[in-house]
Give the backbone structure.
Amino acid sequence: MNKFGAYIKTKSFRNTLLFAIGSVITVVLIAFFSLGFYTNHGSGIPVPKLKGMPIDRAISILKDQGFSYAIDSVYRGDAAPGTVVEQDPDPETNVKENRVIYLTMVTRQAPAIPLPDIEQKSFIEAEAVLLNNGLKVGDTIYRADIARNVVLEVKLGGQIIKTGTKIPKGSKIDLTLGDGAGASEVEVPDLINQNLNDMKFVINQSRLTIGTITYQGSITDSTNLIIIAQSPMKTDSVTKVSIGTRINLTVIQGKK
């Protein structure tokens, strides 16, 4: 151990160590500059800007400048079919001749996607779901229904479509919404042989109006009156009337 300690203090050891370090540095420098020379570091030709061009023109430019190319496609409703929307490498990047330039163009045919579930959802929610799925809101039609601004039907090209139906991405979807007013017609209630006071509640709940009440015979107890006729009356040909229709009644004294 003492001999080794004495050796590393000698001039011979220092010279050997410096020679080894210099050799390593020399080898590293030679490898670095050789690699740069081999790969033509810093040289090349700039990639042209192709985004926004028709694909045919972009291909022609690449061929003229000695590039190879590969093409992928994607559907986008905000760009014309056949337009280059992405490129790799980016424009003005220096690359070697014959380098492959990757292009993404807008496809001419929209992919088919399933209609998302938007029935019985509010218009605002349905619109957001359609947009997130690459669809658009077309015409909105209102129909009498108690639910206001809720999707009742979904149509494409005038035809009713259901959740899961495959449709082209980017399609305009027509929506039928409830107007919040309910149906314009209601069922005619059958009031015959019923107590007048009880049927007043039924008439109001049916969104109808009590019309003229005709009293027949001797009336001694106004709380016990029986309906014997009504107009309009529910028949095979008349089952519904407009909201607010007046119902005229004929009553007699009920039995104790």
User: Anything to note?
Assistant: The helical segments are 2-7, 11-38, 55-64, 123-132, 196-205. The chain has four domains: 2-38, 47-106, 112-179, 185-253. DSSP finds five helices and 16 strands in the chain.
